[in-house]
Amino acid sequence: MSGGEAPPQKRFGIERAIELMRSLPTDQNPALVALVIAKTLAAVDVPVSHIIEDAGAKQKDLEAKLETARAACAVLETEIELHVDEIVELEAFLAEAMSVVERLEHVRNAPGESVMNR
Asked: Is residue 38 part of a domain?
C-alpha cells in the first residue's frame, strides 16, 4: 500500500448490520427502520442478500461452536456429578467412622472398665 491509498474497507456483513441496527431507534417501528436500512444499503450497492447469506454462514458457525461448548459442559457436568457422589460417600464414611471412634472412646474412658485397653 503506497502513502496515498486508503485502508481496505471492512465488508458489510451481518456484524455491521447488527451494529447499525443497534445504533438506530428500533423501539417504535422496527420494520420501518429495517426498510430504511435496506433501501440505504441498496443505494450504496450493498445487496441485502449478501448480508442475509453472511448471517446464514455465521449462524452455522455459531451453532457448531454452541454444540462444542454444550458438549464440553456436558462432560464437565458428568465429572462434577462423579465428584459430588464421591464427596457424599466420603462424608458418610467419615461421619460413621467418627461416630464409632466417639463410642469407643466413651467406653474406653468409662470408669470401672478394666477390660478395655487404655
From this structure: yes
In a domain, 99, yes or no: yes
**For residue 63, what are the domain limits?**
14-109
CA distance 25 to 7: 30
Which tens digit of pLDDT belongs to each residue from 12-38?
A: 899 999 998 889 888 888 899 889 999
Rounded CA separation 117/76 (Å): 49
What is the Cα–Cα distance from 13 to 58, expressed in whole angstroms? 10
Q: Does residue 36 fall inside a structural domain? A: yes
- Alpha carbons 40 and 82: distance in angstroms, whole number: 57
- Say what the pTM is: 0.61
